[in-house]
Specification:
With about 280 residues, this protein is of the alpha/beta class. The protein has a single domain, classed as NAD(P)-binding Rossmann-like Domain (Rossmann fold, 3-Layer(aba) Sandwich). It has 9 helices and 7 strands. Strands 3-2-1-4-5-6-7 form a 7-stranded parallel sheet, sandwiched between helices. Strand 5, helix 6 and strand 6 form a beta-alpha-beta unit. Helix 1 packs across helix 8, helix 3 packs parallel to helix 5 and helix 5 packs parallel to helix 6. The radius of gyration is 19 Å and the shape is globular. The N and C termini lie far apart (about 45 Å). It binds nicotinamide-adenine-dinucleotide.
Length: about 280
């Protein structure tokens, strides 16, 4: 996609962090914005920031884990702006610091509901809108570098499981939407300075409500303190849409770990070839 000006983009999780950074960068490229987030107050503030960039914006409080809420968001976007060209499925929550044996059923329902079904709900509601006008467009799904390896010592298996799923969903969507001229980018950041480790404070009631996750407190300064500026991530996303990049990494520091995992898989495939058991 090359022409952005005057077209419409929708971003979930736009109330803060990476979503807001992406929304700002898309607005900077001249796009009108539909902003969605669970938290109405930061979302309204995000709309003011986007409007100050000289484009039109709509804020729609949304729970991406709820298909009805996401369908209503898509309808509001269509009513306000007509055609949708870019959809960014970005809303997500953290689940670091708990060994997988101890992640509760409510926590699984929440992290899978937001990080995986939120993307699924977005694909189901937004991609038909992009197909509808026949002009093509682009979908960005926010996964993580944790979609490619499970970080040792962080007890982040549940989170990583959701991000591996987002990578698979994105690979499938790329295959299935290509003929409609719809590109896909799977955004896979390393540490970015955001409020991701505060997400338990706004866990919806149907997943058990707000609670504290002390295991994540140290990660706020340790892991994210030296993280990338979310606005820089936003600018990289716009560049990736323009260039038609599928995998979008923002950090290179963990390259060795990802490549070691790939080498291990490759060695296991070699072992399968050598095996005499058929
Ligand atoms: N910050 C990082 O280091 C990092 C690294 C890799 C991937 N990510 C991913 O980036 C995405 C954005 O996270 P962030 O780091 O900007 O954190 P953030 O907490 O600043 O932003 C996430 C936004 O999503 C919203 N949200 C949470 N649950 C929601 C729901 N059910 N419905 C709608 N909105 C909801 C939150 O209110 C928040 O505004 C997430 O998918 C996260 O997993 C973040």
């Amino acid at each position: 996609m090359q022409d952005f000006a005057g077209k419409t983009a929708l971003v979930t999780g736009a109330g803060s962090g990476i979503g807001l950074g992406i929304a700002k960068a898309l607005a900077g490229a001249g796009m009108n914005l539909v902003l969605a987030d669970l938290r109405p107050a930061p979302l309204a503030e995000a709309r003011r920031q986007i409007e100050a960039l000289g484009v039109r914006a709509l804020d729609v409080p949304t729970d991406v884990s709820d298909p009805t809420s996401v369908a209503a968001l898509a309808e509001a976007a269509e009513q306000a702006f007509g055609k949708l060209h870019v959809a960014v499925n970005n809303a997500g929550v953290a689940m670091h610091g708990t060994p997988i044996e101890q992640v509760t059923p409510e926590e699984w329902a929440w992290v899978l509901g937001v990080n995986v079904m939120g993307v699924v709900n977005g694909i189901r509601s937004f991609v038909p809108l992009i197909r509808k006008h026949g002009e093509g467009g682009h979908v960005v799904n926010t996964a993580s570098i944790s979609g490619f390896f499970v970080r040792e010592g962080r007890n982040q298996g549940a989170y990583a499981a959701t991000k591996y799923a987002v990578v698979a969903l994105s690979e499938a969507l790329e295959q299935e939407a290509r003929e409609a001229g719809i590109g896909v980018t799977v955004l896979c950041p390393g540490a970015v300075r955001t409020s991701i480790f505060d997400s338990a404070a706004t866990r919806p009631d149907r997943f058990g409500g707000a609670y504290a996750r002390p295991a994540q407190e140290a990660m706020k300064t340790g892991m994210l303190g030296a993280g990338l500026d979310p606005d820089a991530v936003g600018r990289r996303v716009v560049q990736a849409i323009r260039n038609g990049e599928f995998y979008l990494f923002t950090h290179t520091g963990e390259r060795d770990v990802v490549e070691a995992r790939h080498a291990r898989i490759s060695a296991a495939l070699d072992a399968a070839e050598r095996s005499t058991i058929r």
